[in-house]
Each structure stands twice: as C-alpha cells, then as structure tokens.
Amino acid sequence: MTDLMRGMRAWDGKSVPREPGVCIEGAFIHEPTYRFQEIMSSGFAFPSMPDVHFSVMSNKNASIKGANGIGLLESVRLAQRDAGVLGLLGGYPYTFLRRGKRTLHGLWEGEEVLSRSTRDQALRFEWQLVGQTGNVARPAHLDISLSTRVRNNRVGAARTSAISEEQAVALWDRLLEGVKFRVAVPGATAASVALG
User: Fold this and answer.
1) pTM, whole model, 2 decimals?
2) Domain extents for the chain?
3) What's the topology of domain 38-186?
4) Dihedral of the CA atoms 172, 177, 180, 186 (nearest 10)?
5) What is the pLDDT of residues 143-155, one digit of tens each?
C-alpha cells in the first residue's frame, strides 16, 4: 500500500497520463512495475443508443488450467451440444452472424462470436483471449462484449434497439479495434498502444 500511495497524485479525469499506472476517480497512481494491475473491468453505455452496452474485462493472474483454458469457440460448441443433449425447446437459442478467430493489433490471438438471440432478437457480440497467467501484455483472460436491447442491465429486456444489425457490427468492429493499452507495457506491439 505504501508503494501505491507514493505514486498517487491528483488527476482531473480529463487529461490522459502518458506514464504507466492506474487512473481512478480523482487520482492517478504511477505504477511502472505492473505488479498491482491484475483485474480491470469497464462498462460503457451510450446516451444516443441507450440499449447498447459495451464492456471490457481483463484478468492478468487468472488460472487458464482445465475449464478456465477453454476458448470462446469451444465454449459455444459445448453449449450447442448441451442444448441438443438436454432437448431444450428450440435448441441452441442463437443464430450466428460471424464467428472465428480474430487477432487484434498483432498481439491478442482471440476468438469472436457475433450472434442474435432467437428468443428476444438481442445481439450479443463477444471476443475473448485466453492468454498467459501473469503476462501483462497477454493477460490470462481478456473478454470484450457488446449487447443490444439492454434495459435495467438485462440483455433482451428492451423491446427495440436503437441500431440495426449492420450498424451494430460496424460499431463493434470500430470499438474492438480501439481497445488498446494507454501506454506501452512489456511485450506490447506498437499497434496495441494508444499513446506511443
């Protein structure tokens, strides 16, 4: 805690610090060792598109052993299999717009699944990386998602969506390519860093 407090300074929330560390409300903590940067989660709502939510979650030190190391495509395959085995009414409740491997910034070799719910027509877009435990540049888990028809933090609860399927895909591609490190971390590619 003492090490973190030494690196803390007031931050206005408007400027973008160029050195490594963590931004919190009202403060910036200069932390160049990456020792404390383990879990980060952020969610975004858009005032002009109130039913659209975008989120990013990173966990540097998670386990990737056993079931924790299963990627997104395999998880979907298992869910489809289980829906068939259990004889769920209507089967697997999603249709796919796109799915497969997708590498971001020459660094994160992840997988994406873009789907539409057959029950509520909500779009659920996911991208996931199963990286390496303890690696700040390739965290054990990096999960990014976009959902439509969100109301009261529930996907599918809104009756309509502010954007079309085509607009959602375009927004997803733009947002996904925009996810980058603020400053360079050990092992990052130049394309994965926002402030070079």
Assistant:
1) 0.85
2) 1-37, 38-186
3) Protein Transport Mog1p; Chain A (3.40.1000)
4) 130
5) 999 999 999 989 9
